[in-house]
Amino acid sequence: MKKVHEARVDLDADFGKYGIKKGVLTNPSEGEIYAPNAMWLEALDLVLQRLKEDGLDFSSVQGVSGAGMQHGTVFWSHKAEELLAGLTGDKSLIEQLGDGAGGEEHGAFSHPHSPNWQDASTQKQCEAFDAFFGSPAELANVTGSSAHHVSTDGGFGYTTSR
């Protein structure tokens, strides 16, 4: 395979309406660093629109590659599977998955924001786990993992390590 088309989205340049800086919003007093789910949906729609404008015939696509610097945790709602299964090409992702989609306040998401990998808002809870077990090493010994923040370090989900 060879690269035929390329499109990119610059979160700060393309989505300044969200008030982001370096792709995120911050609340330093709570250690929160997060991004609006709606922005990610709009970013995916925008990159697909740019590929279309570049002349990509989507019916001939054999592979897709993506890269990005922001990663975090997305909290799906109980309606997510149903909404994802019903996606169509005639509406934007924000219309189909965002607030109000499927009659839900947050559509496919249980929360309108996703903690970014830099988020440290659960530091107090991590310290409480360590204190309860006596040390970070003992917590890891008992549970198989040390206490760490909710956000991921490389994808969508929760990872643990020992």
Detailed description of the structure:
There is one protein chain. With 162 residues, the protein is mostly helical. It has 2 domains: 11-57 and 72-115, no CATH class; 122-150, no CATH class. Helices cover 31% and strands 7% of the residues. It has 6 helices and 3 strands; from the N terminus they run αββαααβαα. The protein has helices spanning 11-14, 37-53, 80-85, 93-97, 123-133, 136-143, and strands at residues 25-27, 32-36, 113-115. Strands 1-2-3 form a 3-stranded antiparallel β-sheet. Helix 5 (123-133) packs across helix 6. It is elongated, with a radius of gyration of 19 Å. The protein starts with 10 loop residues before the first helix and ends in a 19-residue tail after the last helix.
Strand content: 5-15%
User: What would the average pLDDT be, to the nearest integer?
Assistant: 84
Count of alpha and pi helical runs: 6
Q: Rg from C-alpha positions? A: 19 Å
Secondary-structure element series = HEEHHHEHH
Strand order, sheet with most strands = 1-2-3
Query: Domains counted in the coordinates: how many?
Result: 2
Gap between N and C termini, in Å? 39 Å
Can you tell me the residue ranges where pLDDT is under 50 for at least 5 consecutive residues? 151-162
Helix content: 25-40%
Structural class of the helices, strands and pairings? Answer: mainly alpha
Shape: elongated
What profile does the largest beta sheet have? 3 strands, antiparallel
Question: Which helices and strands appear, and what pairs or packs with what?
Answer:
Blueprint lengths: L10 H4 L10 E3 L4 E5 H17 L26 H6 L7 H5 L15 E3 L7 H11 L2 H8 L19
Antiparallel strand pairs: 1-2, 2-3
